[in-house]
Prior knowledge:
Blueprint: E1 9-11, H1 21-28, H2 35-40, E2 42-43, H3 46-55, E3 58-60, H4 64-78, E4 88-93, H5 108-111, E5 116-117, H6 126-137, E6 144-149, E7 156-162, H7 170-181, E8 187-189, H8 198-201, E9 207-214, E10 219-226, H9 230-244
Parallel strand pairs: 1-3, 2-3, 4-6, 8-9
Antiparallel strand pairs: 4-7, 5-6, 7-10, 9-10
Helix pairs in contact: 3-9, 4-6
Amino acid sequence: TALKQGKRVIDLGADFRLKDPEVYKEWYQIEGADKEQLTAAVYGLSEINRKKIAHSMLVANPGCYPTTIILALAPLLEEKVIDPSLMIIDSKSGVSGAGRGTSLNTHYCETNENLKAYGVPKHRHIPEIEQELSLKADQKVQVSFTPHLIPITRGMLSTIYTVPLEGIEPKDIAEIYQAYYGTEPFIRLLPAGELPHTKWVAGTNYCDLGYSWDERTGRLTLFSAIDNLVKGAAGQAVQNMNIMLGLEETLGLLGTAIYP
């Protein structure tokens, strides 16, 4: 294998994302990588694990849905400002998120003028999301996650419903996001009252983050948008490669990907 030849590897599949092989087998219904490889692999969410990625021989590139969700929730869980037991995630993806293989579910006549939920209640990205969020929360967490297919080519938006803990105010959320992501080249923190659009990130490696504080219900809703083919896949792989090789992190990623 490439690893045995001393090559550094970035894997875009799910084989090395989950640290527990039994969890992988339960959710994917096949045997996964061995424990030694899983221990060596670093979860490749660039903004969260940059230092580990820089020195790793094996990086597991994250899934697209988990990228939107973990980037939005990780700072708030780490700073312990939201209830880790109450997180409901509603995500929507363009058709390219299903890959290029042909199937009835992604046929034009099935997806055009249509909106549907799928992978309920056990989508394969759930254990990946829960694994990484549990690390940030420093406790085991579970999420309710419902993905939807929408009739656009590319783009992904996650809407995440949370409950802030007592004593937390809107300014605290803004300050935490600024502290964590204020200097990140590919995360754009939107001004108060402005929420992400998938069109704003199409063809780019950006993740746009926004939030809404509802004083009436006491809930904090987070919004996270990416292009599922770029920050949600190949773009993040290039970003990880740049980190691993000590290159400028934005190298090759400031242009616009226009196909498909």
